[in-house]
User: Which sequence fits this backbone?
């Protein structure tokens, strides 16, 4: 089946399918005499799986690992469960970070609202932007304020 037909059947864009192929999530498709990609049933069945795993927040490397587990003859339940638990823990940590961020944004907004009522309003946020530490986490880099967004030092620093 040609790529355009596969894309319509699965509900993906042609570019997404090409992207998966370039990133070795799909084997390189065979070509017709005219140079068109031809996909077999195996690839057509793999595409929704890739989309589903990626939709769960897994990276391309993690999707690749799931594909390897799917193709192996080993019962994949234990390693899949372990990866799902790891991802769930990662999501939990991110949610906790977002809750902290939500709190900091609310504090900053309250501070701005108070300042706007003053005659000589001074935006606290613009005066503390240099007071952040960059922290490396499992999920990347995030900033941690040394002061809260009302300008008060955090943690007795």
Assistant:
């Amino acid at each position: 089946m040609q790529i355009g037909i596969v894309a319509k059947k699965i509900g993906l864009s042609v570019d997404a399918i090409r992207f998966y192929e370039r990133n070795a999530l799909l084997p390189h498709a065979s070509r017709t005499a005219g140079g068109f990609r031809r996909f077999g049933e195996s690839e057509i069945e793999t595409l929704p799986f890739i989309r589903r795993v990626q939709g769960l927040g897994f990276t391309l490397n993690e999707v690749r690992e799931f594909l390897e587990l799917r193709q192996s003859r080993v019962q994949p339940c234990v390693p899949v469960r372990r990866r799902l638990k790891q991802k769930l823990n990662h999501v939990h940590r991110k949610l906790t970070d977002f809750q902290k961020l939500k709190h900091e944004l609310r504090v900053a907004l309250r501070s701005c609202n108070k300042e706007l009522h003053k005659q000589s309003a001074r935006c606290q946020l613009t005066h503390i932007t240099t007071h952040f530490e960059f922290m490396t986490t499992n999920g990347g880099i995030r900033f941690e304020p040394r002061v809260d967004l009302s300008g008060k030092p955090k943690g007795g620093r």
Q: What stands out?
A: The beta strands are 30-31, 37-38, 132-137, 140-145. Helices lie at 3-10, 14-22, 41-55, 60-71, 77-116, 124-128.
